[in-house]
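User: I'm putting together a teaching handout on how multi-component assemblies are represented. Below are the sequence lines for each component of a complex, exactly as they appear in our records. Could you produce the 3D structure of the whole assembly as structure tokens, so the students can see both representations side by side? Please keep the chain order the same as the input.
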Amino acid sequence: MGGGGFSTSASDYALDDYVLGLASGRREPRICLLPTAGGDAQDQIVRFHAAFDDRPCVPSYLSLFRLGQKPISLREHLLDQDIVYVGGGSMLNMLAIWRAHDLDAVMREAWEAGVILCGLSAGSMCWFGGGITSSTGRLAPAAGWACWTGPIACTTTTRPAGGRRSWPRSATRLCRRDGARTTASDSCSRVKSSPTSCPRARRPGRCASPASPTARSPNGPFRCGGCPADRAPR
Amino acid sequence: MEGAPQIVAFGGGGFSMEAGNPLMDAYVLGLVDRERPRVCFLPSASGDADHYIVRFFRHFPADRCEPSHVSLFRRERGIGGDLREHLLAQDVIYVGGGSVISLLGVWQAHRVDEVLHEAWQRGIVLCGLSAGSLCWFSEGVTAFHGAPEPVAGLGFLPYSNAVHYDGEPARQGAYHRFLAEGMRAGYGCQDGAALHFRGTELARVVASRREACAYHVACVDGQVIETALAADYLGKEPAAPALADALAA
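Assistant: Of course. Below is the structure of the complete assembly, with chains in the same order as your input.
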């Protein structure tokens, strides 16, 4: 989602309905909110439950900042979902925290297992090779999770004009307005890059990117999006 | 400011754990030779929880210090200007509790880890409780996510660390086990006690509660040995009974 859904529009649930509809035909869909990008802000969690508690689904949320209050296996819980809904906020922080908790590999596993991944703003850009984020206090390009190796810009109607940066020439351009969505099939051309050494690695011998050649993946190596440095510029 | 690197690592305490007991926070402010020390709160381990930030400002009022906070989740708001510049202009950097794993992840993403090292080297006092205490050490025990588990910190202090060393018995058992399995020697610090390091040497153990203390904990020849470290109580000692009686008479 470029923006929209329960957390940005109190009365417009069309995008949320669409996502729930994708999981129809399955059991009563299990939908889990990951509010990591917002620092697990309570208001986002409350609004999520207000929006989904009365719908035909089983809502839950995972707070990585308050796991001690509800110790569960992150992997088991996420793989048991039909939909993982990622909230907005700081994409830079969210991806860093996912990596710190080894959640990036789990998310990839969930995606490959057919769990529907959705989200808005940071929760939308994160699936792409990169995006425009204000995570560092000013609008700047940042690396995403690279499950699709193209960049994206969210909420183009609400960003100042300077927010639209020029993309790498070879990259797919996907810019969306608030309330619009894109599915994977719209991402028609992908950036190709070679799986080289990954500066994201936090530990020797381990690439922190799920899209890297060394990451755990049931389907074997996945092309690394080049792993642009995920640390904020100095 | 320039001075010896200092870290005050609370086992647990300060404004967020000891309502009505200002001793620990006052001790940290007292380390700074400035009438109104510049104190910056880093609530990253809590996800920059609003209520935590509000409590910080309530307990560090502007008539005692120059308080500020850095929210890494909302960098477009809050301090204007450069993050590094702001942190290096402080006298004290106070790190809140929460998830140490998330804390370190976020700091690394924003390069705060590098800035904190520079701040430490320059003599800016680094302090914090719980996650904000564990983070300074090479290794530690976190139980924030359920069962206690080992965690790697920033490594400014080449020891291990276990916080809340009295309040959560499971931590002590887990710490001993990790030490026996090869975790480096270090410190267990109770709630209400703090380890004050100058450079990488433990200079003093202080306590905001009379009964609180800390331990040096090491594994020697396969056996974990705890050595109690006397703590200096920061409050006033009660008058001797005879004197108290005389005063009451």
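A couple of points students might notice: Chain A has one domain: 14-182. The first strand of chain A starts at residue 30 and ends at 34.
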